Amino acid sequence: MVFDVKTQAIVNLTIQVLLIMTISGAVYLVKKRNLGRHCAVMRISLLVQMIAIAGVMLPSMLGYIEHEQRGVFFNIEMLAHHALGLAVIVIGIYINLAFEGVMRIWGRLVSAMRLVLALWILALIIGLHMYLIIWI
What we know:
mainly alpha
């Protein structure tokens, strides 16, 4: 089943809102000292985000760069949004590997977790702005 671009954007927006709600719940789990469940929720969220990036966001970005002429500022915003998203993925993978003892921990793991949350929220805000520019 093939969806048109606007339907894909709405599906992706829905996924992103559900992810930020899920992540908020994961933050609550940390506050309640339930680190095991927090990690499980975050791993699933990170996997869903990677699938959304590969399946929807990357093809959309390449299509906009190739076919749409929205101006240099929009392209800068889009590249910043994607760079932040990729940073979230890289740092999230690092956190998981460090937490499992596969990698050496550099600094405090809590700092990396807070950084990835801040970057994820910033990427979401920029993505929402782009959605509004394109579709509203």
